[in-house]
Design goal:
The complex is a heterodimer of chains A (about 375) and B (about 240). Chain A is of the alpha/beta class. Helices cover about 40% and strands about 20% of the residues of chain A. In chain A, helix 1 crosses helix 6 and helix 10 packs across helix 11. The termini of chain A are far apart. The N terminus of chain A is likely disordered. Classes of the chains: A alpha/beta (about 375), B alpha/beta (about 240). Strand 11 of chain A pairs parallel with strand 2 of chain B, so a sheet runs across the interface. The complex binds thiamine diphosphate (TPP). The site of thiamine diphosphate has 17 residues of chain B, from helix 3 and strand 5.
Chain lengths: ~375, ~240
């Protein structure tokens, strides 16, 4: 593979892979997906994305604002979305907490938006090193009220180029905020990447946006519904939309599951670490495979249920202290044994460490089977 | 008989929900009169607040969005950057703009966003039942300052026009009121001027309107109008605070 280090960012004119950080690649993928407005507030480990957008959006005559806070950024996104633009913001954990109010309003108002969370260690100020401890915040809505966001969890810089246009497409298709859940490692690491397949998603008819009531009745967008019956009907309408997402938008990848006797469930960078561990385990003929959710919500529950018909051992690995495991437990609903290894924000687990732990659990499980 | 007044075509056929003597109804009507007279119905986009003004979309026959409490200026920023040719204004109370949304208002003003803020200063939190607002006067009794606002505990009334006038991004700031016919006419002129300022691409404009809230001030409507002249304008002097040509 030929690589080319680009300081100035991707230009798309050479038939080469570029060596880019996840943050910059995400920015370029957003630009190529037709993102016309970006609003952000600096926070490590996603600053390269904000900086990339500052440069590129300016070059292209698109909208970039460094906002006064994450609260302002998400509300600018809301305003841009109301006006019909393809809008994005990005942040990391502490900033994501501030965005939750706005995300709740986006969901209630049924407005598309893409929100990137390059997760770092928490709670509180935590640490700038990678973690996956915003999983529950992202997959349960995160703010107040009965709502969901689609959560895409890519595991490599190249995969970001697939996930970003998809995020914009899903946001428009469902008129709903979509979260890209990365982490500090995905944002910071540099990998070869090409943008050959990044196309702007199709345009959906936007008969709800505010443009000034020219030649049509005036429109209003609101989430306050004083009438209790109207409020409940609106909420049921949202629920039905989330059900459609659950039916149609589950995405996942399997790795060496055909003959697997133990299935690891991990996502994002966690899955990357797990892949390294599984490759080592396979060298010792331990039959371990993996299911990697690409959509953390909707969660690939049906797939795990299907595996549970033949596989008894499941191993959850996450860079958090027990969040992903909740979805696995809900999916398996009492079937199979669930093994667990999670580390909260702090030190990043290594493939070798995970290989040893999975191996130990695998042997314990096979001894239990024999006895 | 000649008709001397009629409902502007930009107001929907609905009954205002405002309490008797409240200033919001007058301000709503003025805004829609101005929009009709300036021919802006097809250009205007309003960002409504959380507060007594939140239901303006039931009355305004223009494109309207209800924002989260205090976020109006940030939302209006997003809209205006996408649609620079529209007239974008936020409608905000004193709690909305001067407490929870101070950062959003301040920075939109400082960026010189080409938006207009219609700032309704009634000195209390009307919608939630008359609690202290940042603009509540010293010694004024509210449900959360039962012994009167004590600056040592609760700080001082905030003068938004004067604070914003220090920001280079602001172009036109005026404080007006709606407590008598002449003042209402002046308010209408100020709104017109603020909108024109935006249409001319000059930058951020804001009209602060001292507005009676008899219900929460525990006064009659006429007494409330008098109180604005006698007491409120001492803390919040009327007039143009900034007007950059
Ligand atoms: C985040 C949030 N906090 C609190 C509220 C409750 N709330 C609604 S309106 C309001 C204050 C309204 O006062 P003001 O802005 O002065 O407007 P007025 O009602 O007096 O016109 C509050 C605190 C809310 N809707 N959202």
């Amino acid at each position: 593979m030929r690589c080319h280090v680009s300081r100035s960012g991707y230009r798309g004119d050479e038939n080469l892979k570029k060596l880019m950080s996840g943050n910059a690649a995400l920015g370029e993928a957003a630009v190529l997906s037709g993102c016309s407005c970006y609003f952000g507030y600096p926070i490590t480990p996603q600053n390269e994305l904000t900086e990339y957008m500052a440069k590129r959006m300016n070059e292209l005559g698109r909208v970039f604002i460094q906002s006064e806070s994450e609260i302002a950024a998400i509300n600018m996104v809301l305003g841009a979305s109301v006006a019909g633009a393809r809008a994005m913001t990005s942040s990391s954990s502490p900033g994501m907490s501030l965005k939750q109010e706005g995300i709740s309003y986006l969901a209630a108002d049924e407005l598309p938006a893409v929100i990137v969370d390059m997760v770092r260690g928490g709670p509180g100020m935590g640490n700038i090193s990678p973690a996956q401890s915003d999983y529950l915040q992202a997959t349960r809505g995160g703010g107040h009220g009965d709502y969901k966001t689609i959560v895409l969890a890519p595991g490599s810089v190249q995969e970001l180029t697939k996930v970003v246009p998809l995020a914009f497409d899903l946001a428009d298709r469902y008129r709903n905020p979509v979260v890209i859940l990365g982490d500090g490692m995905l944002g910071q690491m540099m990998e070869p990447v090409d943008f050959d397949n990044v196309q702007p998603p199709k345009e959906y008819p936007k008969d709800y946006i505010l443009t000034g009531a020219k030649g049509r009745p005036s429109r209003m967008i609101r989430s306050l519904l004083f009438d209790t019956k109207e409020e409940e009907e609106h909420n049921w309408k949202l629920v039905r939309k989330y059900q459609r997402m659950e039916q149609n938008e589950v995405r996942y990848e399997t790795f060496l599951t055909d003959d697997a006797e133990m299935i690891v469930i991990a996502y994002g960078i966690g899955a990357r670490i797990a892949k390294g561990a599984i490759k080592r385990l396979r060298q010792e003929n331990l039959k371990v495979g993996m299911v990697r959710p690409i959509t953390a919500w909707p969660f690939p529950a049906a797939v795990l249920q299907e595996f549970a018909r033949t596989v008894h051992e499941f191993f959850v690995f996450e860079m958090s202290a027990g969040q992903l495991i909740e979805d696995v437990k809900l999916a398996l609903n009492g079937r199979g044994h669930i093994h667990f290894y999670g580390r909260p924000g702090g030190i990043i687990p290594t493939p070798v460490e995970l290989y040893r732990i999975i191996g130990r659990h695998y042997y314990m499980a096979s001894r239990r089977e024999q006895s | 008989m000649t008709k001397v007044y009629t409902r502007p075509g930009t107001i929907k056929e609905a009954h205002f929900h405002y309490c008797p003597g409240c200033g919001h109804g007058i301000i709503n009507r003025l805004l829609m009169e101005v929009i009709e007279e300036m021919g802006l119905r097809e250009k205007a986009i309003c960002v409504a607040p959380a507060g007594c003004g939140m239901l303006v979309y039931n009355y305004f026959d223009i494109d309207t969005l209800e924002s989260a409490h205090g976020r109006g200026a940030a939302v209006a920023t997003g809209i205006k950057r996408v649609r620079p040719d529209n007239l974008v204004f936020s409608y905000q109370g004193d709690g909305d703009l001067a407490a929870i949304g101070t950062a959003e208002g301040f920075h939109a003003a400082n960026r010189g966003e080409s938006i207009t803020v219609i700032f309704v200063n009634n000195g209390v939190y009307g919608m939630t039942g008359g609690q202290m607002a940042p603009t509540t006067l010293t010694d004024q009794v509210t449900t959360t300052t039962p012994d009167g606002r004590n600056p040592i505990i609760a700080g001082y009334p905030v003068r938004i026009c004067e604070v914003f006038s220090m920001l280079d991004g602001t172009t036109y700031l005026e404080r007006v009121t709606v407590n008598k016919p002449a003042a209402v006419a002046k308010t209408k002129k100020a709104i017109k001027k603020a909108f024109q300022c935006q249409l001319d691409g000059k930058g951020f404009s804001l009209v602060e309107i001292l507005s009676p809230c008899p219900t929460n001030w525990k006064m009659g409507p006429i007494e409330s109008c008098r109180w604005i002249d006698d007491v409120m304008t001492k803390q919040f002097p009327l007039g143009v605070v900034k007007d950059i040509k």
